[in-house]
Structure formats: C-alpha cells, structure tokens
Amino acid sequence: MKQFAMTINGSSVGPDSESCLAVINPATERVFAHAPDCSREQLDWAVTSAQGAFCQWADLSWVDRRHCLQAVADVLVENVSELKEILTAEQGKPLAEAEAEIRGAANVLRSVSELDLPAEIVRTPDRRIETARLPIGPVAAIPPWNFPLTLAAMKIAPALLCGNTVVLKPSPFTPLATLMVGELAQRVLPSGVLNVISGSDRLGPWLTEHPGIRKISFTGSTATGKKVMQSASLSLKHLTLELGGNDPAIVLEDVDVGNIAEAVFWSAFRNAGQVCVATKRLYVHDSIFSSLQEALTAYARKVIIADGSMPGTQMGPVSNKSQHERLVGLLEDCRQKGWRMSGSDKNVRSPGYFLPVTLVDNPTEDSRIVQEEQFGPILPILRFKSVDEAVSRANASSYGLGASIWSSDLDRARQLSGRLDAGSVWINSSPAMHPMAPFGGHKQSGIGIEGGRDGLLANTVTKSTFYPGVPTI
Fold first, then answer.
1. Are residues 463 and 169 in contact, defined by beta-carbon separation less than 8 angstroms?
2. Catalytic annotation on 90?
3. 334 near 369, Cβ under 8 Å?
4. The domain containing residue 320 runs over which residues?
5. Most buried of the four, 215, 224, 406, 452, by CB within 10 Å?
6. What's the pLDDT score for residue 15?
7. Helix or strand or coil: residue 192?
8. Per-residue pLDDT tens for 35-84?
9. 407: domain CATH number?
C-alpha cells in the first residue's frame, strides 16, 4: 500500500513525529495502512495556508474557479482504479460501489461548477440597491466515513466555487482516499486553496474551535453536531450541519409488491445500510405486509455479503468496530424483546465486521430499533392500517432528514409527501442526494443546506451597496 501524506499549502506533508493513525480494513479487522496524525502545529499551518491563499483565490474570476473544479474532477476519474481499491479497503463497500462513489464525487464537482450567483439588483423610485455574494473565508469541511469522497465533494465544490479556501478533515476511519485526493488536487489547484489533514479524535475539536476558520460544514451524528455547534459559537462561525436521520418509508396498499421489493430492499440496505437517508423504518399497509415481508426476506437470502474486494460482492461489512458493536447491541435487544427476525443467513463470515441482513417483524414504536437510527443492515417492518396513522407514526421522531413513499398513484403520493416532516421525500425510488437539489434536515437532523443554488448561498456572505437619488446607472 502506498504511503499517505497530508496536503498543506500545496505540498505533501507527513506526520510531525512517529505518531500515525492506524487504518483497519473492516473486512479483515487488520491494520493495512497508516495515515498522518496531524499535530496542532500542522493544523495551524493548514489554517494559515488557507488564510494566505484566500484573497488571491477569491480574486480569481468565477470562470477560472469553475475550470479548477472541473480539473479536480478530471484527475479523480483518471485515477479511479487506484482510488477505488483504497476506498474499498478502508470503508468496506464493494469495488463497484467505490468506483460509483468516486465518479459521483467527480460529477458533484462538475455539476456544482456550472452554477452561477448573479448580483441581485433592486430598484425603487428613489434608490438602487446592489447585493453581492462574497466568500466567507477559510472553511472547515468534515465529511463522515460512509461516503467520504462524495460528501467531501458536496462540501468543497460550493465552498471553492464561491471563492473560499478549505481545510478538509476526513474521518479517522476512512482518511486514505481523501488524502490521495488532496495529493492529486495539488496538480491543478493553487497552493493553500485545498488543505487535507488527517488525525485522531482530538483533531476535530481543534479544527472546529480554531479562530482562523470562518465556517464549518459537518456531516455526522446529531450528538457530534451539537458539539460542533458549541465550538462554532466561540467565534460565531457560519455553520452547515447535516446530521442524523431515522428516515421512514411508507408503502401503500396499491403497489405491486413484486415490482418494488428489490428497490425497497436497496433503499434500506445500500452500503450495508450506512446511508444518511436510507430507509430506517419501513411502514407497510396491513393488507400487503406479509407479502412484502416475504419478498424482502427471499431477496435478502440471495444477497452476497463478503469482502468488498471480492468479485460478485453485493454488500460489504459494517465500516468500523464501534458501529459494529452498536449494531450487535441492537440485535441483542431485539432478541431479548422477543421480536421475530428474518433475513439473510446468520452464519456470516469471520473475521470482519460483517452482519446479516435482518428484518425485524413489527416491533413496538417505543422499541430501540424503531426509535434509534440504526445505520446498518437491520430494518424494522411496521404494520399500519390507515394513511393518517402511518403519517403520524412517521413524523413522531426528533429527526426529519428524509422519507420515501411507494405507491402506484403518483397524485396520491405527491399529496402524502406534503404531510411528511422531512427535508427530502422520494417517491418510488431509493433515497439519494443530487448536487443540483437543496438538501437539509428538519428538527434535529441539521441546520443549513447543501446542494443547488441554496448550497452556494450557504458559502457566502452578503454585501449590499445603496445608491441614493434617482438611479441613472
């Protein structure tokens, strides 16, 4: 495995000392590589570099910055073969999904690069007001371990396009592919514009508290997001927080179970269920409950769960030990409560953080598996008799990230979507973000927006210039 380095001020930088971060392959539970454990001095250097590059980068034209983003996208695609091997080894997802993530990150960079933010002009009988959107300054981008590259791209693309500089910190579980992206970006970005650092749990608080950072863009758990918000309050940093979700799906009685079963399955279990907007509570009308449960169970038994680097693998392991232990605890709680469970073969391979696909038969609403976001290959299937009941139960959560509706009647589904308290609703499709659509959560699922024009606006501050008198310009 190659040696991995951080990118600070356009150069590759190793650890300050012998201290390194061990990276474990979740399919083998073995350390297979090391990443630098960024020191406080190196963090200061990265932030200082972002500050130093800011004015010159912000002074570039929008078109020049657009071309830079497109160039980063090109180098990602050119190096997809090596990147996907690294991503699978550190995260666990199958190689095909790793390649799709890398190409998805490149697509985010290209798509966002095509957006514009024209000046806003207001004219009144005696005044002209011009409002410009200006960059904020150095941005701390902190993506999670489930989609480290795609979610990093969702943060750095709008930040850089708007003229900000970035300090990017990947999860300590999945730092390697992101570090390689930093080294590749050195070829096409000016020094200091994109700094990529890696480190242990101490690094996150150092970064979010750093006085040189003007905005934090974080994706992760609600509990950690609250700590990030506290850190940001010390210097009133701008914030975008994409946090937890306990996303409901409602399956109406008018569906064709045979036609939707596979799609519903992957809406919950893509990336071993480690997707922020994955279906995490499946509400199924009583009249089709048994048939859909049987179809999902039959499909689960066919899914190949194995090392993501092996040909034919459809689902890899859970990404890290702590998440695996938490999921094992949830399964044990379901057993102790007496819930009936079905799914794939329970004899999954070992070693590795593997878990079988598990469907939990109609647990109570107050059970842990319904109330908590599992973020893994476990899904409660819940009966309902009326749409009003389904909506009420779906909305009875402190989260409001995403939701989905499955129905053969699109008008009915559209009306139902308006009643769901979630930032995004998908109809007859697996939940997935799109770089051109605003994405953000309600309630404790986050603050702020990523994606689309709103995502650009979140990376700017306004400056209004007032011209007195009758406008002549």
1. no
2. no
3. yes
4. 248-427
5. 406
6. 86
7. coil
8. 999 999 999 999 999 999 999 999 999 999 999 999 999 999 999 999 99
9. 3.40.309.10
Residue pair 319/353 in contact by the 8 Å Cβ criterion: yes
Backbone angles phi, psi at 381, to 5 degrees: -110, 125
Active site residue: 38, 68, 162, 276, which one?
A: 276
Q: Both 26 and 69 in a single domain?
A: yes
Q: Could you say which of 90, 97, 101, 242 is catalytic?
A: 242
What whole-number distance in Å separates Cα of residue 294 and Cα of residue 288? 10
Specify whether 67 is located in the same domain as 207: yes
Alpha carbon 113 to its chain's center: 19
In the residue annotation, 276 being an active-site residue is answered as yes
Q: Which of 214, 261, 175 is nearest to 51 (CA)?
A: 214
| Whether residues 391 and 420 fall in one domain | yes
* Strands of 460-468's sheet in order across: 120-124, 127-135, 460-468
Edge-to-edge order in the sheet of strand 424-427 = 341-343, 358-361, 378-384, 281-285, 248-251, 402-406, 424-427
Is the sign of the CA dihedral 458, 459, 463, 464 positive or negative?
negative
Residue 433 lies in a domain: no
Q: In this structure, is residue 107 part of a structural domain?
A: yes
How confident is residue 347, by pLDDT bands cut at 50, 70 and 90?
Answer: low
**74-133 pLDDT per residue, tens:** 999 999 999 999 999 999 999 999 999 999 999 999 999 999 998 899 988 889 999 999
